[in-house]
Amino acid sequence: MNAPDAAPPPGPAPEGGLPAVAPQLRALRRRAGLTLEAAARAAGLSPAHLSRLETGHRQPSLPMLLALARVYGTTVSELLGETVAERDAIVRAADMEPTRAGGWTYLQAGAPGRGMQALRVRVPYGSQGDIVRVHPGEEWLYVLAGRLRLRLGDTAHLLGPGDSAHFDSLTPHRLAAEDHDGVELLFVHTLLQSPTATLCLGPPTGELP
Q: What pTM was estimated for this model as a whole?
Protein backbone atom coordinates (compact mmCIF):
# COMPACT_ATOMS: atom_id res chain seq x y z
CA MET A 1 0.00 0.00 0.00
CA ASN A 2 1.38 3.37 -1.00
CA ALA A 3 2.00 5.91 1.71
CA PRO A 4 -0.06 9.12 1.57
CA ASP A 5 1.59 11.66 -0.66
CA ALA A 6 3.22 14.54 1.10
CA ALA A 7 2.31 18.04 0.00
CA PRO A 8 5.22 19.65 -1.88
CA PRO A 9 6.35 23.11 -0.79
CA PRO A 10 4.25 25.88 -2.30
CA GLY A 11 5.61 27.96 -5.11
CA PRO A 12 4.54 30.67 -7.50
CA ALA A 13 2.30 29.72 -10.40
CA PRO A 14 3.79 30.24 -13.87
CA GLU A 15 2.86 33.43 -15.68
CA GLY A 16 -0.21 32.89 -17.83
CA GLY A 17 -1.12 29.70 -15.92
CA LEU A 18 -4.48 28.49 -14.69
CA PRO A 19 -4.46 29.31 -10.95
CA ALA A 20 -7.82 27.61 -10.28
CA VAL A 21 -6.55 24.25 -11.50
CA ALA A 22 -3.77 23.53 -9.00
CA PRO A 23 -5.84 23.37 -5.78
CA GLN A 24 -8.65 21.55 -7.55
CA LEU A 25 -6.37 18.84 -8.90
CA ARG A 26 -5.20 17.69 -5.49
CA ALA A 27 -8.66 17.95 -3.92
CA LEU A 28 -10.32 15.94 -6.69
CA ARG A 29 -7.56 13.31 -6.68
CA ARG A 30 -8.00 12.79 -2.95
CA ARG A 31 -11.78 12.69 -3.35
CA ALA A 32 -11.26 9.86 -5.85
CA GLY A 33 -9.11 8.04 -3.27
CA LEU A 34 -6.00 7.98 -5.46
CA THR A 35 -2.39 8.46 -4.46
CA LEU A 36 -0.20 10.75 -6.53
CA GLU A 37 1.51 7.72 -8.08
CA ALA A 38 -1.73 5.91 -8.94
CA ALA A 39 -3.36 8.99 -10.47
CA ALA A 40 -0.27 9.83 -12.51
CA ARG A 41 -0.03 6.28 -13.83
CA ALA A 42 -3.72 6.24 -14.80
CA ALA A 43 -3.39 9.56 -16.64
CA GLY A 44 -0.17 8.61 -18.42
CA LEU A 45 1.91 11.17 -16.52
CA SER A 46 4.90 10.91 -14.22
CA PRO A 47 4.28 11.51 -10.49
CA ALA A 48 6.71 14.43 -10.63
CA HIS A 49 4.79 16.04 -13.49
CA LEU A 50 1.45 15.63 -11.72
CA SER A 51 2.96 17.06 -8.54
CA ARG A 52 4.09 20.15 -10.48
CA LEU A 53 0.57 20.53 -11.89
CA GLU A 54 -0.92 20.31 -8.39
CA THR A 55 1.42 22.99 -7.05
CA GLY A 56 0.92 25.33 -10.01
CA HIS A 57 4.48 25.00 -11.28
CA ARG A 58 3.29 23.59 -14.62
CA GLN A 59 0.33 24.52 -16.78
CA PRO A 60 -1.78 21.55 -17.93
CA SER A 61 -2.62 21.12 -21.59
CA LEU A 62 -6.17 20.38 -22.71
CA PRO A 63 -5.41 16.66 -23.24
CA MET A 64 -4.03 16.50 -19.70
CA LEU A 65 -7.18 18.15 -18.34
CA LEU A 66 -9.32 15.65 -20.25
CA ALA A 67 -7.18 12.79 -18.94
CA LEU A 68 -7.39 13.88 -15.32
CA ALA A 69 -11.12 14.61 -15.60
CA ARG A 70 -11.71 11.02 -16.72
CA VAL A 71 -9.43 9.57 -14.05
CA TYR A 72 -11.18 11.56 -11.30
CA GLY A 73 -14.67 10.95 -12.69
CA THR A 74 -15.39 14.63 -13.17
CA THR A 75 -15.42 17.35 -15.83
CA VAL A 76 -12.91 19.86 -17.12
CA SER A 77 -15.23 22.56 -15.73
CA GLU A 78 -14.84 21.20 -12.20
CA LEU A 79 -11.07 20.90 -12.63
CA LEU A 80 -11.05 24.59 -13.52
CA GLY A 81 -13.06 25.41 -10.41
CA GLU A 82 -16.11 26.49 -12.38
CA THR A 83 -19.51 26.07 -10.75
CA VAL A 84 -23.04 26.86 -11.86
CA ALA A 85 -26.10 27.43 -9.73
CA GLU A 86 -28.17 24.97 -11.72
CA ARG A 87 -27.86 22.82 -14.83
CA ASP A 88 -29.21 24.82 -17.77
CA ALA A 89 -30.06 23.34 -21.15
CA ILE A 90 -29.03 26.55 -22.95
CA VAL A 91 -25.47 27.85 -23.24
CA ARG A 92 -25.31 31.44 -24.51
CA ALA A 93 -22.39 32.56 -26.66
CA ALA A 94 -21.90 35.58 -24.40
CA ASP A 95 -21.42 33.24 -21.41
CA MET A 96 -18.67 31.16 -23.02
CA GLU A 97 -15.41 32.25 -21.43
CA PRO A 98 -12.33 31.18 -23.39
CA THR A 99 -9.75 29.07 -21.56
CA ARG A 100 -6.24 28.51 -22.89
CA ALA A 101 -4.29 25.36 -22.09
CA GLY A 102 -1.26 23.91 -23.87
CA GLY A 103 -1.66 26.31 -26.79
CA TRP A 104 -5.30 25.34 -27.39
CA THR A 105 -8.17 27.74 -26.81
CA TYR A 106 -11.47 26.19 -25.88
CA LEU A 107 -14.93 27.24 -24.76
CA GLN A 108 -17.41 25.08 -22.89
CA ALA A 109 -20.29 24.62 -25.34
CA GLY A 110 -22.35 22.38 -23.06
CA ALA A 111 -23.59 22.19 -19.50
CA PRO A 112 -21.30 20.64 -16.84
CA GLY A 113 -22.10 17.35 -15.17
CA ARG A 114 -23.43 15.62 -18.29
CA GLY A 115 -22.47 12.27 -19.75
CA MET A 116 -21.01 14.08 -22.77
CA GLN A 117 -18.82 17.14 -22.87
CA ALA A 118 -19.10 19.65 -25.70
CA LEU A 119 -16.30 22.08 -26.48
CA ARG A 120 -15.50 24.64 -29.12
CA VAL A 121 -11.77 24.30 -29.68
CA ARG A 122 -9.17 26.29 -31.59
CA VAL A 123 -5.95 24.41 -32.30
CA PRO A 124 -3.04 26.56 -33.53
CA TYR A 125 -0.55 25.27 -36.04
CA GLY A 126 2.18 23.11 -34.51
CA SER A 127 0.42 22.68 -31.14
CA GLN A 128 0.32 19.17 -29.60
CA GLY A 129 0.19 17.43 -32.96
CA ASP A 130 2.59 14.77 -31.66
CA ILE A 131 0.38 13.65 -28.74
CA VAL A 132 -1.24 10.24 -29.21
CA ARG A 133 -4.54 9.77 -27.38
CA VAL A 134 -6.11 6.45 -26.39
CA HIS A 135 -9.02 6.22 -23.95
CA PRO A 136 -12.44 4.63 -23.47
CA GLY A 137 -15.50 6.24 -25.01
CA GLU A 138 -16.39 7.99 -28.26
CA GLU A 139 -15.47 11.30 -29.84
CA TRP A 140 -17.19 13.40 -32.47
CA LEU A 141 -15.64 16.46 -34.04
CA TYR A 142 -16.75 18.90 -36.72
CA VAL A 143 -14.43 21.28 -38.57
CA LEU A 144 -15.71 24.86 -38.47
CA ALA A 145 -12.74 26.61 -40.09
CA GLY A 146 -9.32 25.62 -41.37
CA ARG A 147 -8.09 22.12 -42.11
CA LEU A 148 -7.48 19.33 -39.61
CA ARG A 149 -4.96 16.52 -39.88
CA LEU A 150 -6.49 13.57 -38.05
CA ARG A 151 -4.76 10.25 -37.65
CA LEU A 152 -6.85 7.25 -36.59
CA GLY A 153 -4.67 4.21 -36.01
CA ASP A 154 -2.47 3.87 -39.08
CA THR A 155 -4.67 5.97 -41.36
CA ALA A 156 -4.29 9.72 -41.87
CA HIS A 157 -7.19 11.96 -42.90
CA LEU A 158 -7.37 15.57 -43.99
CA LEU A 159 -10.64 17.26 -42.99
CA GLY A 160 -11.90 20.63 -44.19
CA PRO A 161 -14.77 22.91 -43.10
CA GLY A 162 -18.02 20.95 -42.89
CA ASP A 163 -16.24 17.60 -42.50
CA SER A 164 -16.72 15.58 -39.33
CA ALA A 165 -15.37 12.45 -37.68
CA HIS A 166 -17.01 10.08 -35.20
CA PHE A 167 -14.81 7.33 -33.79
CA ASP A 168 -14.10 4.97 -30.93
CA SER A 169 -11.62 6.69 -28.64
CA LEU A 170 -9.76 3.42 -28.02
CA THR A 171 -8.40 3.92 -31.54
CA PRO A 172 -5.08 5.78 -31.15
CA HIS A 173 -5.63 9.26 -32.56
CA ARG A 174 -3.80 12.51 -33.14
CA LEU A 175 -5.07 15.96 -34.08
CA ALA A 176 -3.09 18.77 -35.70
CA ALA A 177 -3.80 21.93 -37.67
CA GLU A 178 -2.79 21.59 -41.33
CA ASP A 179 -2.56 25.33 -42.02
CA HIS A 180 -0.62 28.09 -40.29
CA ASP A 181 -3.90 29.86 -39.45
CA GLY A 182 -4.91 26.92 -37.24
CA VAL A 183 -8.17 25.01 -37.15
CA GLU A 184 -11.42 25.54 -35.25
CA LEU A 185 -13.54 22.57 -34.17
CA LEU A 186 -16.70 21.56 -32.44
CA PHE A 187 -15.69 18.66 -30.21
CA VAL A 188 -17.92 16.27 -28.26
CA HIS A 189 -16.67 13.34 -26.18
CA THR A 190 -18.22 10.93 -23.75
CA LEU A 191 -17.09 11.58 -20.20
CA LEU A 192 -16.92 8.32 -18.29
CA GLN A 193 -17.97 9.06 -14.72
CA SER A 194 -15.64 6.59 -13.07
CA PRO A 195 -12.33 7.07 -11.23
CA THR A 196 -10.99 4.04 -13.11
CA ALA A 197 -11.51 5.59 -16.55
CA THR A 198 -8.19 6.51 -18.14
CA LEU A 199 -6.71 8.48 -21.01
CA CYS A 200 -3.22 7.49 -22.10
CA LEU A 201 -0.99 10.18 -23.50
CA GLY A 202 1.72 8.28 -25.31
CA PRO A 203 4.75 9.36 -27.32
CA PRO A 204 4.43 9.93 -31.06
CA THR A 205 4.41 6.72 -33.09
CA GLY A 206 5.71 8.36 -36.27
CA GLU A 207 5.11 11.46 -38.32
CA LEU A 208 1.87 12.01 -40.16
CA PRO A 209 2.41 11.49 -43.88
A: 0.53
